[in-house]
Design brief:
Blueprint (H helix, E strand, L loop, with lengths): L6 E5 L2 E5 L4 E7 L14 H13 L4 E5 L12 H16 L6 E4 L3 H10 L3 E4 L7 H10 L2 E5 L17 H18 L7 E4 L8 H9 L12 E2 L5 H7 L7 H13 L4 E4 L2 H22 L2
Parallel strand pairs: 3-4, 3-10, 4-5, 5-6, 6-7, 7-8, 9-10
Antiparallel strand pairs: 1-2
């Protein structure tokens, strides 16, 4: 008897049905202090041009953020975050056919971005009780990325501790899905992100990556972001701008473990890595069926 492995992710008018080629979420940081590209795209026109370039490189989703979430990052006011992201979303929504995601912890910013045309909320603070955020997602019928983070960006790397990082992240996802359902958010709106680098040591990140296949039992698509992250520097001794090979190695491994979405700064290289890895996996599957 065959097992139905189809999974749907719905964000407003956008609908993705898995299995399908993995989706690539291109990062559009409208910030002066993001760890990888802070300040490069702070002006709205520069951010819009960067976003259009990411689409040309193959991005399936654009993730627009106005507050850095690097370890120890300063908190940005709601007004400042809105000032940064809304002009970019408003400029893009009439020019692109891919869904726009708002990367924010603030319900008011999420609501404003959804009103401007965003289709997805990428919430790094999903581990907190998020009644206002979940209400905004439910009312808009938006897609929702629920990410696991221990602590806050200001505290998350001080001394993260777990008994079993994979088991604890999985337990969070189960609880979160129930909380979201109670708030009126359908499971089909939800994607899970284990939060590589968010309140995890190098060993925790490696454990999560090594055991990604265990998250398949949750029956929701999984998003992973390893792009240029500091654990790669700790492991490989590479500065931020020299972490692409490590990022792509993590990406190739993760898609082989069943991950369906990838958040990245380097869209063209990530797309090539995914398509090549998927072609090899498909060939192996064809051979094993004969």
């Amino acid at each position: 008897m065959s097992v139905n492995t189809e999974r749907v992710w719905q964000g407003r008018r956008f609908r993705f049905v898995f299995p399908r080629p993995a989706l690539v979420m291109g990062v559009v940081n409208v910030t002066p202090d993001s760890f990888s590209d802070g300040g490069q795209f702070l002006e709205p026109q520069a951010a819009v041009e960067h976003a259009l370039q990411l689409i040309a490189e193959g991005a399936d989703i654009l993730d627009v953020g106005g507050e850095s979430t690097r370890p120890g990052a300063a908190i940005v006011t709601e007004e400042e975050e809105l000032r940064r992201v809304l002009p970019v979303i408003e400029a893009l929504v009439g020019r692109v056919s891919v869904p726009l995601s708002i990367d924010t912890q603030k319900p008011a910013v999420a609501r404003a971005a959804l009103a401007a045309g965003a289709a997805i909320v990428n919430d790094i603070a999903a581990t907190q009780v998020r009644a206002d955020m979940w209400a905004a997602v439910a009312e808009a019928g938006a897609g929702y990325v629920a990410m696991h983070m221990q602590g806050t960006p200001q505290t998350m790397q001080l001394e993260p501790r777990y008994g079993d990082v994979v088991g604890e992240v999985k337990a969070f996802f189960v609880t979160c899905l129930a909380q979201l359902a109670a708030a009126g958010v359908s499971p089909e709106q939800v994607v899970f992100d284990p939060g590589i680098g968010f309140g995890k040591t190098l060993e925790h990140n490696l454990d999560l990556l090594a055991r990604l296949a265990e998250f398949k039992t949750l029956d929701r698509p999984l998003l992973v972001g390893v792009s240029r992250k500091s654990f790669l520097g700790k492991l490989l001794g590479a500065e931020t701008t020299h972490r692409l090979p490590g990022s792509l190695a993590g990406t190739a491994w993760a898609v082989g473990q069943g991950v369906q979405l990838f958040r990245t700064h380097d869209v063209a290289a990530t797309v090539q890595t995914l398509r090549m890895t998927e072609a090899i996996l498909a060939r192996r599957a064809d051979k094993s069926d004969k």
